[in-house]
Amino acid sequence: MSALPKRYFTQEEYAMLEEKADYKSQYVGGEIFAMAGAQPWHFKISSNLAGMLYLRFQGRECDVFFADARVRVRAGELWTYPDLVALCGTPRFDTSANPHSLLNPQVIFEILSPSTADFDRGDKFIRYQRIEPFSDYVLVDSERMRIEHHVRQESGGWLRHEYHEATDMVRLICVGAELPLAEIYERVNFPTLGTDV
Fold first, then answer.
1. Which residue among 4, 76, 96, 179 is least crowded, i.e. fewest CB within 10 A of its CB?
2. Domain-embedded: residue 27
3. How confident is the chain (197 residues) per 10-residue block, as mean pLDDT?
């Protein structure tokens, strides 16, 4: 028995479907994937980060956008909803479809789950790199205190840092913010792996 062929969509088809849908989905190289809901500890990490950035950005021309903000890689190969994005300066949007899509994030945060971690570290990161002002990619583990921080270098390559301790600090030079792990993970109840809740 042969597998059914994959269904590929144009960007215009995705935009029309997404505008009418009751749920969020992402577009990756012609394929559409529904985005699943998140666990409580995922929400807590996300709200901690959003609150920290909001406080650090007060009085400055910087913004933090939460999970419902769609980002589009300019080539149109990827339309997705990162957990958080941050930037300083004027946000630019693609207004050709609803919801409008942010085009110029400087920092992208993805909170990892077992089902998305490989994609977030791999193909999605490769596609994000096509965003010109994008300079910091922060992958936040949702099941233990662990952060991977990728920083774009002047050469175009990426330098990776990893943090595990509550006293460690994620430094986002491009937006002038320092984020201690103790605050990122404050009051986060990690899941008990392998047991029913």
1. 4
2. no
3. 67 84 82 76 93 97 92 86 97 91 97 91 95 96 96 96 97 97 94 53
If DSSP codes are grouped into helix, strand and coil, which group holds residue 180? strand
Residue 156 lies in domain: 38-184
Is 24 a domain residue? no
Cα distance between residue 130 and residue 118, in whole Å: 19
Tally of domains in the chain? 1
Residue in this structure with the two tokens 């994620």, named with its chain if needed: 170
Of the CA atoms within 13 Å of residue 23, those in its CB half-sphere come to 8
* SS3 assignment for 92-147: CEECCCCCCEECCCCEEEEEECCCCHHHHHCHHHHHHCCCCCCCEEEEEECCCCCE
> What is residue 3's predicted lDDT score, i.e. its pLDDT?
53
- Tell me, yes or no, whether 81 lies in a domain: yes
pLDDT at 152: 97
8 A C-beta contact, residue 48 and residue 186: yes
3-state SS assignment for residue 163: strand
In-domain check, residue 15: no
Q: What is the CATH number of the domain that holds 113?
A: 3.90.1570.10
Q: What value, to the nearest 5°, has the Cα angle with vertex 14 and ends 77 and 65?
A: 70
Coil vs helix vs strand at 184: helix
Q: pLDDT at position 87, please?
A: 98
